[in-house]
Write a structure and sequence with these properties.
Pfam families: LytTR. With 151 residues, the chain is an alpha+beta fold. Helix content is 20%, strand content 34%. The strands form three sheets. The protein has a five-stranded antiparallel sheet. A three-stranded antiparallel sheet has the order 8-9-10. A two-stranded antiparallel ribbon has the order 1-2.
């Protein structure tokens, strides 16, 4: 990777333009873009989760798994499962935390709660998480998880 600075007097004060060049777009490029977009934005210390007649304030590090079940978004923590409404991608965006990795169309996990991976009978993988929580990993998303794990 090469990094260059080029002065551009046509930009307004305070504006920064970043151009990434590569032969082809790759997972590494997408991760770099995500990192640059999150530059200087801190993840929230707690996330408010509205459920029926409660609003829970949950620390993101305590969230094990986010899973869509029917029309509900289920937030798994070590001491409870909180049903709420919303979209998976919107909840992941609200967390603004690189520790959460989408592993299927309907689920995202906190990589810090990942204990092991097992081959499932369908040929995919199953993630074993804290408190024996299990979830399937879609083949489409497996490469992203493997890359994040350094495999």
């Amino acid at each position: 990777m090469q990094i260059h600075f080029q002065k551009n007097e046509h930009l307004n004060d305070g504006d920064i333009e970043i151009i990434l060049s590569a032969k082809e777009r790759s997972l590494e490029i997408d991760e770099l873009i995500a990192f640059l977009k999150s530059y200087r934005s801190l993840p929230p210390a707690v996330v408010p989760i509205k459920s029926d007649d409660h609003v829970y304030l949950i620390k993101p590090e305590n969230i094990i798994l986010i899973d869509v079940t029917g029309s509900d978004l289920m937030i798994y923590t070590s001491d409870k499962v909180i049903p709420t409404k919303g979209r998976l991608y919107a909840f992941i965006d609200k967390l603004n935390n690189p520790d959460f990795i989408q592993i299927s169309k309907h689920a995202a996990l906190n990589i810090n709660h990942l204990e092991s991976l097992e081959t499932s009978f369908t040929g995919g993988m199953t993630a074993i998480l804290t408190d024996k929580v299990k979830t399937d990993i879609s083949r489409k998303y497996l490469s992203v998880l493997e890359h994040r794990l350094g495999l």
